[in-house]
């Protein structure tokens, strides 16, 4: 009798567990996009390096290359972005005029591809050939006529290390995670993805610095994926989109709604910056939305979203509403890291100007570039 009672108890507990699991699956299927959540239970991603010392030998080749100055025989400067794909395979894009945000004419992206040899990497495509050896890329046309020599460069954002202005709330400075819920900090003082701010946000100016891991074998959304989920409703995508065209689901995009004006991604393991101006949606007393949320984003100092009106929640974001909600740095099972995160919850109101003013990169209206202007003129 005692043994049968024990077995019966175990059977009841098993049935209870199975019924709970079935209910959870049913609820998820019924409302898959109800909340902006972390994806901690998704399948493990391909191997990721969070430090150059952990990377393979292809890491030294991947990255950005640029001509040191004008090359008269080509009619101008060139930029080259080389993307490691694992196992010695590479894709690349050749850009006339220079690198994105630094001279590229935005007219064409010339794709190349190649396989690393014992001593160097040869790339070919779009009527051009490139040989990379010891940090130098020699560019030639299809007939092997020399055109230019490009050298490897490591760019930094002009807003990297920007200090918080008076009155701003420091969310993370490498000392503690007290401003977040269930956040984790690495041994070297970096914030891990998955952090949710304790403070809810309406209108604000946010500065954060992020670093995507080196994941050459990964592709698409599985390559350095995270995101800045504003009010847990609207996601500004974080992704290793280095060398890609720049789509709405790539880095700098308002997720699946609006592509970045330009893909300003640096290579993986390079520190990058987001400077975000956000104006929350407006609601009347009866709870009807009367104005969309608007957002301006500078990635690495260059505008990638310009006063864009966000029509609705993005992806798995929570439903829109007048409630003030926090910011989530999404965990997508990729070791994206953050540092120097601060927010001004009472940013100065930008005043309209009759004519555009120069913002340092091209002629944008000053109100659209207020982030960089304020950082430079504090």
Structure report:
- By secondary structure, the chain is mainly beta.
- It has two domains: 102 residues, Lipocalin (Beta Barrel); 208 residues, Jelly Rolls, CATH 2.60.120.
- 10% of the residues lie in helices and 32% in strands.
- It contains two helices and 22 strands.
- Strands 1-2-3-4-5-6-7-8 form an eight-stranded antiparallel barrel. Strands 9, 11, 13, 16, 19, 20 and 22 form a seven-stranded antiparallel beta sheet that branches.
- A hairpin with a 3-residue loop joins strand 14 and strand 15.
- The protein is globular and about 70 Å long.
- The N terminus is likely disordered.
Mind summarizing the main beta sheet?
A: 8 strands, antiparallel, barrel
Q: If classified by CATH, what would the architecture of the largest domain be?
A: Sandwich
Number of domains: 2
| Proportion in β-strands | 25-35%
Measure the end-to-end span.
80 Å
Quaternary structure? single chain
CATH fold annotation of the largest domain:
Jelly Rolls
Key terms:
Jelly Rolls; 8-stranded antiparallel barrel; 22 strands; 2 domains; Lipocalin; 378 residues; mainly beta; disordered N terminus; 32% strand
């Amino acid at each position: 009798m005692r043994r049968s009672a024990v077995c019966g108890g175990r059977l009841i507990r098993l049935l209870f567990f199975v019924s709970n699991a079935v209910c959870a699956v049913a609820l998820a299927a019924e409302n898959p996009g109800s909340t902006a959540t972390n994806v901690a239970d998704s399948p493990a991603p391909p191997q990721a390096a969070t430090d150059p010392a952990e990377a393979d030998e292809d890491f030294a080749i991947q990255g950005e290359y640029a001509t040191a100055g004008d090359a008269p025989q080509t009619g101008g400067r060139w930029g080259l972005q080389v993307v490691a794909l694992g196992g010695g395979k590479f894709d690349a894009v050749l850009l006339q005029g220079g690198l994105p945000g630094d001279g590229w004419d935005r007219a064409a992206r010339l794709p190349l591809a190649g396989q690393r040899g014992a001593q160097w990497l040869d790339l070919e495509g779009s009527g051009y050939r490139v040989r990379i050896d010891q940090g130098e890329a020699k560019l030639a046309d299809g007939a092997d006529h020399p055109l230019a020599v490009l050298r490897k460069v490591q760019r930094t954002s002009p807003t990297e290390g920007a200090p918080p202005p008076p009155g701003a709330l420091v969310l993370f400075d490498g000392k503690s995670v007290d401003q977040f819920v269930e956040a984790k900090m690495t041994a070297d003082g970096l914030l891990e993805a998955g952090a949710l701010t304790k403070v809810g946000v309406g209108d604000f100016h946010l500065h954060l610095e992020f670093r995507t891991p080196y994941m050459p074998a990964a592709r698409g959304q599985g390559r350095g994926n995270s995101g800045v989920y504003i009010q847990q409703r609207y996601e500004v995508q974080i992704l290793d989109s280095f060398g890609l065209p720049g789509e709405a689901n790539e880095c700098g995009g308002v997720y699946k709604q609006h592509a970045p004006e330009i893909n300003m991604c640096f290579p993986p393991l390079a520190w990058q910056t987001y400077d975000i101006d956000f104006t929350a949606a407006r609601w009347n007393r009866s709870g009807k939305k009367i104005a969309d949320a608007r957002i301006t984003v500078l990635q690495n100092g260059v505008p990638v979203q310009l006063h864009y009106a966000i029509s609705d929640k993005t992806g798995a974001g929570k439903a829109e509403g007048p409630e003030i909600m926090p910011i989530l740095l999404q965990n997508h099972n990729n070791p994206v890291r953050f540092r120097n995160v601060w927010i001004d919850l009472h940013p100065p109101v930008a005043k309209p100007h009759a004519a555009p003013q120069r913002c340092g990169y091209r002629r944008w209206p000053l109100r659209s570039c207020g982030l960089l202007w304020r950082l430079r003129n504090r």
